[in-house]
User: What shape does this take?
Amino acid sequence: YRPEPLPDALLRRLLDAAHHAPSVGFMQPWNFIVVRDRALRARLHAHFREVSDRAARDFPGDRGETYRSLKLQGILDAPVNLLVTCDRSRGGPNVLGRSVQRDTDVYSTCLAVQNLWLAAHAEGVGVGWMSIAHPDTLRTLFELPESVLPVAYLTLGWPVELPDTPLIERVGWRRRVDLDTLVFAERWGRPADLDSGLGAGLPPAEPPPAPPERIREAVATRRAHLTRPPGSLGRLEDAVERIAVIQGHLRPRAHDRVLLLLAGDHGVTAEGVSAYRPEVTARMVTQFVSGGAAVCAIAREHGIRVQVADLGVDHDFSGATAVVDCKVGRATSNIAEHPAMSRAQREEAIEHGVRLVADMDRPDLLAVGEMGIGNSTVAAAMAAALLDRDPEELVGIGTGVGPGTRAHKVEVVRRALVRHGADRSPDGVLASLGGFEIAGLVGVMEEAARQGIPVILDSFITGVAALVAVRRTPTVSRVLLAGHRSAEPGHRLVLEALGLDPILDLDLRLGEGSGAALALGLLAAGCRVDAEMCTFEEAGIEHPEVPGART
Assistant: This one.
């Protein structure tokens, strides 16, 4: 808070707004104790600090450090403190409308607090609710009668900054829950589709409208005032700003990071296009869930939660509870001879991808990867069809094949294109040339776009899935970031078609989400810098005035 006092006339307006809150039985159970005495506030601050320090032990690691950073200095710095109480005896023992639900007096008092907050916000006044206090301590300090319950201890004053989002949301402690997950129809747990009337079933996988332009402007304005030279973090600044706009928050959040790996086998391996046998797909899925794969080590290093889903592996994972069962079939058909899948299978795989994201506790950042022996051949065929390019430009060495096998791989892709070349629509290409895990990734991206979750792409295969998703639903492009550019030659062309610049360019060709996970660690660090760095005003540093500097 700034040190200027709150005028008494303004404080009275705020209290009058609180006093006009609705109350059950019109009992008006509230009282307001205005606290200006410094000694009393110092005793309160010491109590708050003691309780807060004890509570911090319940949150290990980074969570505990974030908790300790949530200061309670406003108790001392704010011009005014206010205790809002509820007199449970007001109106006598029988209050209209309170005979069964006895706590409606407390609910009514909370409405008074809400009214005060809304009025304060309109006046540019900041309000903090200090809930970390023992009620008995408040009773003693303020000499409350037995019938009076302390409800809210508030700090009021002129804030250094009046943010659009709560502090604990800005620092990444907890994010706002998606409204659609909280609205039910008729009975608990039955989702409601508010866009087409209340009814059963999830809302359609429609991406949200573009983030409000004011969010973009607010993010850019705040970043221009951070205590660093504008543009000094290079392309990382642009990526972090993009994340903030996708999330719709002034300060980007990266606390909850998830890597979603989708796996599936491919019939095209019968053509001898890979250095590995098809059963390696199942063995690698086992490595993912046991923590023994390369990407698992990267994920542990960067605090990334890994989730693995079986879309079409030729193996029974029914005993592996760590593998999410989304199986559409046990491998696609050989695209050189037959369509990869039916239209019904394509839609089933996409829907599995949608539900994988819909069933998550919405993450701040979502990286995507895949596993499937033969899928670089499939991705090359899809890219050739979608971009109208020669397979020679798109086919790489994949898992490490030699020149002879690569040349054979090019010919297999050509055969597949000749056989299935009539329908170049994204849905047609996905069904005739795709993979179950690629179709699942399409659904993942479409649902992430609907929820406003930034998606960090991995390599060539996830890039091709993104190309299909964007062709199907153009607004998906708003949530995509390219984690890296792989050594596969087709990846560069796919990223160009998507209009994406990679975060990293390390000539990786491991796949399994490894490049996306590496980039996710860097992006999380960038988000933390933007979210936690002070502005010149907050730090009390004079903003530089440099002629010709970019702002």
